[in-house]
Structure formats: C-alpha cells, structure tokens
Amino acid sequence: MKLDDLKKNAKEDINKATLIKELESVRIKYLGRKGSLTNILHSIGDFPKEDRPLIGQTANKLKREITNLLEEKKKYLEESRALEWEDLSLPGRKTSKGSLHPLTILSQEIIDIFMSMGFSVVRGPEIETEYYNFNALNTPEDHPARDLHDTFYLKDGRLLRTHTSPVQIRTLEKHSPPLRIISPGRCYRVDTFDPTHSPTFVQIEGLWVDYDVSMSDLFGTLELFTKKIFGEGIRTEFLPGYFPFTEPSAEVWIQCPFCDGKGCSVCHSGLIEILGAGMVHPNILKNLGYSEFTGFAFGLGVDRIAMIKYNINDIRLFYQNDIQFLNQFNEIKL
Ligand code: PHE
C-alpha cells in the first residue's frame, strides 16, 4: 500500500542523512507544504467515505512517527557534531594569576620579622576618637596635627586616625604589661596626592612594654629590622626627633640604597628617614597605672619602605590599580 511504501522510504531517507541540512530536505520531502505525506493528508476527501477514517488515522500516526524519527536523528547528528568539534589536543585555557598588593606583601614580610622577635599582631579601628588619636597620646590641645588642615574630622567629632599610635593606648587599656605588639593598618591625613604624599597610607605600629626596657632595646630591635628588610650591609642611623608620646624620641634613617649613601636626588643627604620611634612617654604609662614599667614604641611607614625597597618613585602608583604595575609583584613570594 502507498502509505507503507512511504513509511519505508522515509525511514531509509532518514537513516541515510548524515548532515542536518540533508535531514531538513527529508522533512520537506515528506512533511513540507507540498510533501508526499502532506499531499495524502490533503487528499483524504478523494477516498471513499468509509475508508477515510482509517486512512486519516494511519496517515496522522505516520506523520508523528516520521516527525519523531527526524527529531531523534537531528539530536544524534548535533551531538556527534559537538564531539567532532572538541579538539582534545588543544592546550587548556590559561588562568590569569592575580598578585597581592605590594603594600600587603611588604606588610606581611614586616609582620613576620617582628613575630619572629615575639611580637603579636593586634588591630585597631580606622575611625578614631580625639581621645585615642591625640589626648591619650599626650598630644597638647594646640598641637598642629590636630588642625583641620591635617586631620579628616567626621561630622560627629570623630576622625580618621592619623597614625596607628592609638592602638598603643587601646592595647594597654585591655592588657597589662609585659607585652610586645605590632599593629598594621591604614591611616589618613589631609594631603593632596603627589609623588611623595598620599591622603592615605599604611603604618605599622610597634610597642614593647616591660619592667626595664631601654633605649638600647629599641635600637637593637630596629637595627635588626632594617637589616632583615634591606640586607645585612645597610647602615642605620638614629637621630633625635620629637613626638608628644615618646620621650626621648628618635628618627630612624637608613643609608640611601639608590646612591649607597653618597647623596642623590632621592635622599640629598645620603640618608632616608623610614620611621619614628622613642621611649613611651612616662605620662602615658602613669595615666594607665603602669608607672613601674618602661617601654618603647615605633611607627613605620610601609609605603615609604616599599618605595625604597622596590625602587618606586611615585607613591600614587600604590593607589591607582594599574594592572601592569601590580603584575610586577606576581613573582614576589611571601
Ligand atoms: N605616630 C608617629 C607618626 O605617625 C610615629 C611614631 C610611633 C613615633 C610611635 C614614635 C612612636 O609619625
């Protein structure tokens, strides 16, 4: 019978098709607007009345069957085509590796050095009160650092800490000496960006309080630190300085690594200042009830040390998120 032949031919055609576009021609041949099965379905009226239901049913069933076979074959061809395209010999896609920020890398290195000397790490808030940032640190009411031009004040009277020194007070309020802590973190000062200034920077505070800590402990500790960071041959100088919260105070300078201490456009004098330090002011210890103790404190600028160590001539590079700049630190191992 005609429908049986049609079924047989359609199946053969579908089996033979190896491309999706061939399959589409098969569909058109049988099921298209002028396809052979469509023609039969359209001409059912020409058959004797009593034969029409059976022919109609059979033709519709065949239409569903052919449609299903076409669908199945299409899926099969699509899947096998996907396999053909999968070239297993291609090299894998390269994952791009990020790097830690240079200030993070260096902070971690500095933290490790002090931890190996028995210091532990504590953190303090970036939003501070005047009390912790100035008053408790023995800073007079008329000290220029308190000026609006130097400190970012919030509407409620609090401020963005100008140094990490408030952590000294917060720590001594909670823990009684003897103690040895360092505190890394971000600080803020009213400064416009230029090659050597930034309104934000990273400091690491150090504090060692015990029964008889002396200035020579301070010098020894910091000299060891500069040697570990800049190499054994580095010359470290301690010059007199002034901070309201230390007495006596010192500035720590190192021999300029750019000119080996001969004097150049970076250092002028052959020396570069890297940190401020001193013996904790007796007033501070007295106010906290620790008169029987002595201690030393220091605050070092991580940005400054990073610029010297990695030979960077513009502090703004740390804050611009320039991928090319940051990628250079990919290879520095922690
Ligand atoms: N807080 C000081 C500064 O920001 C540095 C410092 C810390 C000095 C501790 C002495 C002792 O410049």
Task: Write a short abstract of this structure.
The protein has 334 residues and is an alpha+beta fold. 39% of the residues lie in helices and 19% in strands.
Highest-level CATH class of the largest domain: Alpha Beta
CATH topology of the largest domain: BirA Bifunctional Protein, domain 2
Gyration radius, rounded: 40 Å
Portion in helices: 25-40%
How does this structure look, described?
The protein is an alpha+beta fold. It has two domains: 80 residues; 228 residues, BirA Bifunctional Protein, domain 2 (2-Layer Sandwich). The chain has eleven helices and nine strands. Helix 2 packs antiparallel against helix 4. It is elongated and about 120 Å long. The mean pLDDT is 92. The structure holds phenylalanine. The site of phenylalanine has 10 residues, from strand 8 and strand 9.
Task: From the structure above, extract its key features.
334 residues; alpha+beta; BirA Bifunctional Protein, domain 2; seven-stranded mixed sheet; two-stranded antiparallel ribbon; 11 helices; binds phenylalanine
List the helices and strands and how they pair.
Layout: H1 2-16, H2 20-31, H3 36-42, H4 52-85, H5 102-115, E1 120-121, E2 127-128, H6 130-133, E3 159-160, H7 166-174, E4 179-188, E5 200-210, H8 215-230, E6 236-243, E7 246-255, E8 271-280, H9 282-287, E9 294-301, H10 302-309, H11 323-327
Parallel strand pairs: 1-4
Antiparallel strand pairs: 2-3, 4-5, 5-9, 6-7, 7-8, 8-9
Helix pairs in contact: 1-4, 2-4, 5-10
